[in-house]
Amino acid sequence: MYEDQVPVAGIQPRPQRRTRGRGTIIRAGLHWQGKGTLVEQLVGLSVDSAGRGCIYTILERSDPPLAALKRTRKELQGLYASQRPGLDLQVEKAFQHEYIQRFFTDDGKGNGRLILRRGFLLLSGNPWDILVRLLTFRLPDRKTVVWRIDTFFDALQRFSRLEPASMDYEERSQAIRQLSESCTMLRMVAPACEQLIQQYWRHHTAQTAMIAIIAIMEYQREHGLYPSDLDQLVEAGHLEAKPIDPYSGKPFLYRQTADGFLLYSVGQDRKDDGGVRGTDEHGRPIVWAEDGDWVFWPWLYH
Question: Less packed terminus of the chain by CB within 10 Å, N or C?
Fold first, then answer.
């Protein structure tokens, strides 16, 4: 988008490169999202974030014309509309089933016993509990472990599709921990799965916010002033509907300011703090704080 207006490291882009690669970074990030391993999907989210960061830089440091803003908004809307909904944890689930193939015998009827020299990671509890079960032969069979793994990943898939407004972060985190307690291997993978769900919804929120920001700037170019509320974006045809904040289930919070406008989400704590950013452990404002609001404009550079 309008790359020729932003010199990189003091180098002015050549005219023929003005629009080359617009959306390429975001498109690459979306390619990795919603499929593959946890690592691949996290990489996709990170690449998508890098692409949005480039656009924020252009919006902040240049003055893109109306045509460029419209073109970019429509391109982003098309890219994000084609995005796979939610996350895909089937590959991670398949990995767990592959471990079962190696750690259990197969009686030909869908069941089998644990091979102790290989399958200690499938046991759960403290060392004393594990020792007691070993001595009393109270070990999980193949069917039981398969059921635990399927239950865990099916629940994660449901959680990934629940908007944060309908399920508190701590509630989801506790539910994931409880489901993973039945198996040491699930406890090992649970934090990464939880992180992926959290990152997915953060990025989904940021994607929606970016389109809204560009639409607000379009309105300003056309009318000479920023909209008084988000309804005017719909009335003017810049958006089909008001952008919804997944963390509140309501439209993003917006208001005009002396030098522009403010657009933010209530964030992880789901409380409106009036557009005040949360801080890190050193008291510095950050975008993705556990408390405070997530302010998408003005953008916060790190």
Answer: C
| Any domain includes 33 | no
Structure tokens belonging to residue 82: 């084609």
Average pLDDT, 10 consecutive residues per value, the chain (302 residues): 38 36 70 79 87 88 90 91 78 85 77 62 51 46 85 90 88 89 81 89 94 96 96 96 96 95 95 93 88 92 56
Alpha carbon distances (Å) from 20 to 13, 28, 125: 11, 15, 56
- Residue 220 maps to a domain: no
Burial 146-155 (b: 16+ CB within 10 A, else e): bebbeebbeb
Within a domain: 182 = yes
Judge whether 52 lies within some domain.
Answer: no
The tokens for 239 are 């958006």
Domain of 183 in residue numbering reads as 90-197
Number of structural domains in the chain:
1
Q: Residue 33 to residues 69, 73, 169: CA-CA distances in angstroms?
A: 25, 20, 22
- For residues 247 and 268, the answer to whether their CB atoms sit within 8 Å is yes
Residue 106 to residue 226: CA distance in whole angstroms: 67
Helix extents (H) in the chain: 24-32, 38-61, 66-81, 90-103, 127-136, 142-161, 169-180, 184-223, 231-235
Dihedrals phi, psi of 265, to nearest 5 degrees: -105, 155
Burial of 18 (0-12, 13-18, 19+ CB in 10 A): middle
Q: In the structure encoding, which two tokens stand for residue 285, read together?
A: 């404002």
Distance CA 73, CA 66 (A): 11
